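The authors assume throughout that readers already know how a fold can be written as discrete tokens. For illustration, here is how one protein appears when written out as sequence plus structure tokens:
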Amino acid sequence: GPPPTIGHPSGLCSPRDIGTLLPPSLGTSPHLALLGKRMGTDDFASQEAKKIRPALQAIRALKDEPVPEGYYRFRFNEDCQYPHCGYREHQTHFHCMRKDCGYSFCDKTRFVQHTARHDRLDTLMGGDFQQYRSNVSCGRSDCVYASMVGRQQNKASHFHCMKCDFVCTDTNKVVAHRRQHQKRDSINAAGFEKFTPSQSCGVQGCNHNQKQTHYHCLKCNYSVLGLSQMSAHKFRHLD
């Protein structure tokens, strides 16, 4: 014969009777009750557990997914040993492992963005500059930015020229300064040395000394004012 009704004329469970069929975790929906009645409580609970299990596995996999090369993950209870890190020992986070960087973040989408930043800066610096982030000391006692490391108001990286004492925080100045060195290298390759009005050339009797930018031949101290004169003078030493 037809199955007996339980506390409800329609044959469905009333809300107060649902608990007799289903575990409390499945709620009090009449639709769930009907499904549980047809499948059996154990089967229904098993089906629900199968739905939940993949989601939990996905969450665990997300937490344990590999960290891209060049980065390191620190758990919330691990000491990253970065003295100025805001996430240190209280939140799971990541650090860029470059010695001149140490950038820290929690959002995994930052991996691609930060790697692209390094690629862009490396191209701009061209091996002639060294970058130091605001939380990393450059180790130079005479650097004007060394005393600002870790300060809240200081968020800018600074850049040291590896060929001279020039330092700046503006990437545009990095590019401009590199051009100056490239030009100076070309001048030296041509056999001349450049002197600006603020520099004494030390050549006795030089009419341009500390008056205007000029160039002295490294072989005979002959002075010129432009690149075209350099080319003409070079032929004198070829004879």
The beta strands are 71-74, 93-96, 104-105, 129-132, 158-161, 167-168, 192-195, 214-217, 223-224.
